[in-house]
């Protein structure tokens, strides 16, 4: 027989063997109502299934069979894949069973992602081949500095030093953002991650926390329908009178968040205010939230709320022409303009500042080097 024909026959045999092997693997997903017993009853006895379940709970205490779990089945083995990082193989070995659990290691690589805004932050991030999740992570760091719904501009740029996690040669998710730069309307803001036993969060290079004492706005709003004024023509009474808050127009039912940590001192219906909540904060500050459609049932007078907690929902109760939130801030009894209000900064204590700067120096250097590399490329092009 000629060598080329002999080679061809070997290839055909290997192909046939491989095709047969794959054909013998049945792949499906767990359906609603299926149990470990129903999956294993064709291959194992009831007592064996009890023993398998017991051993499985000892090795993986948090394991529960979920709808949608991937199953691969051969003549003598069933493999469950509860997630991408775990394989559970239950093998028939003579008159017994063998349980094998494989946990695939996750490797972490810190890399820089950079982009430019053309329409939205999500679009800018996905244009770089990244997941929208990264855009949300970045926005959560800068939410006290940038209004991503109204202050983002075409041409704004960002750089993100982020941990990317890989397993089985595939990207499986993001770790922490270690550092980020954002240029918004010409204003440059750098955020650096810092964590100790007592401190955890993002800080500017001088140790100022990225997390302000107050959120910039208590809700995701459509527009500002009325601003702070000492002499406004009231839309209902048609009389000129002060308006000591900002009216944020938004659909009925839009969640309203506490803008700072504090204690609820009032939660009730009150005449023109309609359903409203008043929160007392540190250092003489108070915030008021008027015309709510309803309250968060978990919030009561005397409750302590954290910044970002939902306290109620947009409505038009009291004297109002449409659904909106009238948001007000007071300092020692005097009203402040919420749109001009500068939230007090939180800073690292001076004895911790040096540790922070040393710990974050490597992150700053990684991002700084991307600017140097870009400058060198431009110089070479010129």
UniProtKB/TrEMBL annotation:
<feature type="domain" description="M23ase beta-sheet core">
    <location>
        <begin position="242"/>
        <end position="338"/>
    </location>
</feature>
<dbReference type="InterPro" id="IPR050570">
    <property type="entry name" value="Cell_wall_metabolism_enzyme"/>
</dbReference>
<dbReference type="InterPro" id="IPR016047">
    <property type="entry name" value="M23ase_b-sheet_dom"/>
</dbReference>
<keyword id="KW-0645">Protease</keyword>
<dbReference type="GO" id="GO:0006508">
    <property type="term" value="P:proteolysis"/>
</dbReference>
<dbReference type="InterPro" id="IPR011055">
    <property type="entry name" value="Dup_hybrid_motif"/>
</dbReference>
<dbReference type="GO" id="GO:0004222">
    <property type="term" value="F:metalloendopeptidase activity"/>
</dbReference>
<dbReference type="Pfam" id="PF19425">
    <property type="entry name" value="Csd3_N2"/>
</dbReference>
<dbReference type="InterPro" id="IPR045834">
    <property type="entry name" value="Csd3_N2"/>
</dbReference>
<keyword id="KW-0378">Hydrolase</keyword>
<keyword id="KW-0479">Metal-binding</keyword>
<dbReference type="Pfam" id="PF01551">
    <property type="entry name" value="Peptidase_M23"/>
</dbReference>
<protein>
    <submittedName>
        <fullName>Peptidase M23</fullName>
    </submittedName>
</protein>
<dbReference type="GO" id="GO:0030313">
    <property type="term" value="C:cell envelope"/>
</dbReference>
<dbReference type="GO" id="GO:0046872">
    <property type="term" value="F:metal ion binding"/>
</dbReference>
<keyword id="KW-0862">Zinc</keyword>
<keyword id="KW-0482">Metalloprotease</keyword>
<feature type="domain" description="Csd3-like second N-terminal">
    <location>
        <begin position="110"/>
        <end position="228"/>
    </location>
</feature>
């Amino acid at each position: 027989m000629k060598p080329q024909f002999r080679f061809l026959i070997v290839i055909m045999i290997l192909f046939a063997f491989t095709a047969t092997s794959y054909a013998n693997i049945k792949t499906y997903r767990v359906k609603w109502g299926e149990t470990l017993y129903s999956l294993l009853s064709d291959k194992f006895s009831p007592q064996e299934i009890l023993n398998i379940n017991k051993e499985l709970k000892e090795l993986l205490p948090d394991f529960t069979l979920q709808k949608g779990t991937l199953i691969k089945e051969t003549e003598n083995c069933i493999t469950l894949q509860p997630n991408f990082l775990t394989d559970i193989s239950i093998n028939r070995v003579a008159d017994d069973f063998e349980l094998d659990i494989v946990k695939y290691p996750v490797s972490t690589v810190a890399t820089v992602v950079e982009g430019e805004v053309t329409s939205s932050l999500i679009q800018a991030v996905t244009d770089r081949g990244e997941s929208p999740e990264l855009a949300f992570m970045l926005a959560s760091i800068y939410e006290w500095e940038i209004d991503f719904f109204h202050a983002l501009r075409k041409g704004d740029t960002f750089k993100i030093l982020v941990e990317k996690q890989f397993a089985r040669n595939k990207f499986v998710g993001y770790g922490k953002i270690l550092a980020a730069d954002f240029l918004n309307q010409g204003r440059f803001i750098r955020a650096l991650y810092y964590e100790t036993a007592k401190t955890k969060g993002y800080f500017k290079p001088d140790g100022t926390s990225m997390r302000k004492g107050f959120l910039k706005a208590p809700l995701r709003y459509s527009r500002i329908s009325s601003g702070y004024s000492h002499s406004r023509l009231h839309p209902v009474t048609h009389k000129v009178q002060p308006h000591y808050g900002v009216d944020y127009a938004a659909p009925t039912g839009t969640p309203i968040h506490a803008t700072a940590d504090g204690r609820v001192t009032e939660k009730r219906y009150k005449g023109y205010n309609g359903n409203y909540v008043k929160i007392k904060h540190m250092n003489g500050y108070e915030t008021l939230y008027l015309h709510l459609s309803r309250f968060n049932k978990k919030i009561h007078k005397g409750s302590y709320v954290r910044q970002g907690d939902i306290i109620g929902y947009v409505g038009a109760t009291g004297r109002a022409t449409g659904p909106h939130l009238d948001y007000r801030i007071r300092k020692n009894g005097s009203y402040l303009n919420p749109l001009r209000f500068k939230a007090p900064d939180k800073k690292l204590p001076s004895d911790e500042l040096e540790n922070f700067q040393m710990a974050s120096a490597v992150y700053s250097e990684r991002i700084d080097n991307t600017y140097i590399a870009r400058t060198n490329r431009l110089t070479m092009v010129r």
